[in-house]
Design goal:
- By secondary structure, this protein is an alpha/beta fold.
- It contains 13 helices and 12 strands.
- Strands 3-1-5-12-6 form a 5-stranded mixed beta sheet, sandwiched between helices. It has a 5-stranded mixed beta sheet with strand order 9-8-10-7-11. It has a two-stranded antiparallel ribbon with strand order 2-4.
- Strand 8, helix 6 and strand 9 form a beta-alpha-beta unit.
- The longest helix has 20 residues.
Length: 335
């Protein structure tokens, strides 16, 4: 699985140039605890807090040396975590509940990074879909069969009392190119994350956007760890989350976003080659990190996990169960 390696010259330049990074970074010779973190899928501006924490010295300030790995899907990220190949992962709330309820995976959410859903349903301005009820009888593009995007559609439909069989599905991926299928009439709408919405807005696509957040309680994305790591390496996890929180606060304070983009440059993923689009995606993601207020960054809300699990059960994705199995508040209460 590919791992992005930091260029030491770029790391040092970013650390010295940016005004908001941690200044009390331990000397490189000092012993740091080395851990690995995996994203749910590849590398993207979506994961900016982790990159900024890595290149600004925040992880080092909190005693960590973090190896950031681009994942190949939510299920694979969970598998890597359970297998002990990584100590921290990030994935969707739906994926967390499904792994626990269906496979009894020994994992828990330790912090909520995307407090609201990242999913949106895109349709044409000429034939807009603005409510869940308007999905009945339509063909909807999904990112992948059986994944979080399809589960989200099922939850939206269940909440509106629409049998899932009344909505046809077509796998289209998570890309602005899916809008071409809408324009050609091959699908009526598609579900995508905020980065795709931002890219389409940047080119003034003639689209209608329906947020799914009002209809889906489960958090969009959370950091997760195994119960064994929670029990035996709590200080390490708390250091990771403190670094991520400080990175989010720094990104919020960086009003023009230029230092944030600069700090991500050593990771050299394609989005960064179009700074305007990358910045638009960054600001869109920032909205979900801060959707419950700056003071509640990374906080775990038990009630939304309980409601979210119940919605998933109503949609037939999991059996009803004890939602407290999906999270712990022990870390977010200390941030």
């Amino acid at each position: 699985m590919p791992t992005l390696k930091l260029n030491r010259r770029n790391f040092t330049a970013g650390l010295l140039a940016t005004p908001f990074v941690a200044r009390s970074v331990p000397a490189l010779a000092q012993s740091l605890q080395e851990i690995s973190y995996i994203t749910p899928f590849g590398h993207s501006v979506v994961y900016a807090p982790d990159y900024v924490a890595a290149t600004s010295g925040l992880f080092e300030k909190n005693g960590l040396k973090v190896n950031i790995i681009g994942g190949t899907g939510s299920a694979a990220a969970v598998q890597q975590l359970v297998a002990g190949q990584v100590q921290v992962a990030r994935t969707g709330g739906i994926d967390i509940v499904r792994a626990i309820a269906n496979s009894d995976a020994p994992i828990r959410a330790i912090a909520t990074v995307s407090q609201s859903s990242t999913w949106h349903i895109i349709s044409s301005q000429d034939a807009p879909i603005n409510t869940p009820e308007e999905l009945a009888g339509k063909t909807v593009g999904i990112v992948s069969a059986g994944g979080g995007s399809e589960d989200t559609v099922d939850i939206v439909l269940a909440g509106a009392g629409i049998p899932k069989e009344e909505v046809r599905r077509q796998v289209v991926g998570n890309s602005p190119g899916a809008f071409d299928l809408v324009k050609l009439g091959r699908i009526d709408a598609f579900i995508c994350d905020l980065s795709v919405v931002s890219n389409l807005r940047a080119i003034d696509a003639p689209m209608a956007v329906m947020q799914v957040d009002p209809f889906v309680a489960i958090p969009g994305q959370a950091y997760i760890a195994t119960q064994e790591t929670i029990d035996n390496h709590g200080d390490m996890l708390l250091g990771y989350l403190r670094s991520a929180k400080e990175a989010i606060q720094a990104i919020e304070a960086d009003t023009d976003g230029q230092e944030t983009l600069k700090l991500m440059e050593p990771f050299d993923f394609p989005e960064l080659r179009d700074p305007d689009t990358a910045l638009a995606s960054l600001r869109a993601e920032q909205q979900v990190w801060l959707s419950k207020g700056s003071e509640n960054v990374l906080r775990i809300y038990p009630e939304v996990w309980e409601e979210g699990w119940a919605q998933m059960a109503a949609a037939g994705i999991v059996e009803a169960g004890d939602a407290s199995r999906a999270y712990t508040t022990v870390f977010s209460e200390q941030l």
